[in-house]
Amino acid sequence: MRDPVATDFQTWASACAVRVEAALERWLPASGVAPARLHEAMRYAVLGGGKRVRPLLVHAAGGLTGAAPEALDRAACAVELIHAYSLVHDDMPCMDDDVLRRGKPTVHVVYGEALAMLVGDALQALAFEILAGTIDSLEGAVAARMVADLARAAGSLGMAGGQAIDLASVGLPLSRTELESMHRLKTGALLAASVRLGARCGDPRAFETVQPELERFAQTIGLAFQVVDDVLDVESDSVTLGKTAGKDSQHNKPTYVSLMGLAQARALALNLHEQAHRCLAPLGPSALRLAGLTDRIVHRSS
User: How many distinct structural domains can be found in the chain?
Assistant: First the structure.
């Protein structure tokens, strides 16, 4: 017998992903607009691939505060463009040197390293341009706070800083505390920002009410996402992942699997899954979509 709650979540998630894809298609410059090669490469990097986890988190969190879909579209596209830009840069030879992303050749393989660098730069700029447009539907102070939230999550105290620590940690034995700190920045910061931005798009008073639980949830699910990533890098294959499997061990990077072993890393992911659900429990039925995303993140195969 089919679970009606799970079915409802799948229907919502599919419709939301289609909505986000259409918004990204709309806001990305057309490939025929000069400079055409750059715009073609930007669209190649973003459209038609990816799990869209961050945009889904934006829309699910917005449901807790009665956010308007139009404002959520802007926040969702902004975080996805930041994520896409980070993947373009991470895949380059000077960073992780990968040739496969989302099941197709990486941007620098198709378009060259110089243009790939510009693609990432342009996607980052476009993200903030789109997010700044929330000032048309939200109070100016709220829109400014959202821009600041995303900037911090993407910068040296967030994603970029985590990547810098990652690069500096190759071949080094990190403690669990050090590894967790790195991933709270590298992966967790943007996932947490997705939840925060979505909730900020709605009623400010409702945001204040749900913020404590949402912050705890966001930190927990961000860590869970990375632990599962580390497990899949060992257990899965490149076709399933859509990116090169086993590259962490090949590059001698510290991971939860290298630190704890595969079985304990799997157990940690399940423990974080339970913690995330406990964080959402006080929010009641309005958090069911975030709960569904929690299940999808932890139980995913790619």
Answer: 1
Q: What is the pTM of this model?
A: 0.95
- pLDDT tens-digit profile of 27-86? 999 999 999 999 999 999 999 988 999 999 999 999 999 999 999 999 999 999 999 999
What's the pLDDT at 284? Answer: 95
Radius of gyration of the chain (CA): 19
Q: Residue 227, class by beta-carbon neighbours within 10 Å (0-12 exposed, 13-18 middle, 19+ buried)?
A: buried
Return the residue matching tokens 């600041």: 148
Query: CA 177, CA 163: separation in Å to the nearest integer?
Result: 16
CA distances from 146 to 65, 77, 143, 220 (A): 15, 13, 5, 21
For residue 67, give the CATH number of its domain: 1.10.600.10
For residue 275, the enclosing domain spans: 4-299
Contact between 96 and 90 under an 8 Å Cβ cutoff? The reply is yes
Place of tokens 């992780």: 96
Q: How far apart are CA 52 and CA 45, in angstroms?
A: 13
